[in-house]
From TrEMBL:
Cross-referenced PANTHER family: MEMBRANE PROTEIN, PROTEIN LEMA
Protein name (record): LemA family protein
Keyword terms of this UniProt record: Membrane, Signal, Transmembrane, Transmembrane helix
Taxonomy, superkingdom: Bacteria
UniProt signal peptide: 1-27
Membrane topology: Single-pass membrane protein
An example Gene Ontology CC term for this record: membrane
Gene3D superfamilies for the chain: LemA-like domain
Main location: membrane
Family according to the record: Belongs to the LemA family.
Entry keyword rRNA-binding: no
């Protein structure tokens, strides 16, 4: 009898949690964490390309020290500002991370523009390969960010809507800060950066 009662109570509790949105909230929270991991993965891939890129550029433009210093400082800042999935509820931490990555984007843009002044650099096969890798990474960053933005929107909607907002309140689940953009179009269209090949290439900030 006790066993049947336990099973009945467990089943009722499970159905209750499912009906009040608990399971949906948990699933969406996990999805945002997974989406964030992909964002971090792509930003790390970009950071890993930087030393090789700087090394190649220095061979042809070793007196561009101001640009190299800017890239080095940006990469150091990116390395020092880490944001784990557990810290994604902190708006200030999110802004610091976004600012650091924006600084890296700006520094890389200036580095790539150096090639305009050095035809031999533009013709270097290794530089061209790194340029393609960087462009591809920037595109993947944009895609990963877009996925994260949409997953956070879904989660935040569930957290705020009735009756799931009551469940979120009980379990301490709050809206997550998202990537800030100046306008909605920036979510799907990245800022333009000149990579020194006379074509417009999108790059995420």
């Amino acid at each position: 009898m006790k066993k049947h009662l336990f099973i009945s109570v467990t089943l009722a509790l499970t159905l209750s949690l499912s009906g009040c949105g608990y399971n949906a909230l948990q699933a969406q929270d996990e999805q945002t964490a997974a989406a964030w991991s992909e964002v971090v993965n792509q930003y790390q891939r970009r950071a890993d390309l930087v030393p090789n890129l700087v090394q190649v550029v220095e061979r042809y433009a070793n007196h561009e020290q101001a640009v190299f210093s800017e890239v080095a400082e940006a990469r150091a800042r990116v390395g020092s500002v880490q944001l784990t999935p557990e810290a994604l509820n902190d708006p200030q931490a999110m802004q610091q991370y976004q600012d650091a990555q924006g600084q890296m984007t700006s520094a890389l843009s200036r580095l790539m523009m150096v090639s305009e002044r050095y035809p031999e650099l533009k013709a270097d096969a290794l530089f061209q390969d790194l340029q393609v890798q960087l462009e591809g990474t920037e595109n993947r960053i944009t895609v990963a960010r877009n996925h994260y933005i949409e997953d956070v929107r879904t989660y935040n909607t569930t957290v705020r809507q009735f009756p799931t907002n009551l469940t979120a309140m009980v379990f301490g689940m709050k809206p997550k800060p998202n990537f800030s953009v100046e306008n909605e179009a920036a979510i799907s269209v990245a800022p333009t950066v000149n990579f020194g090949n006379n074509t417009n290439t999108g790059t995420a900030q």
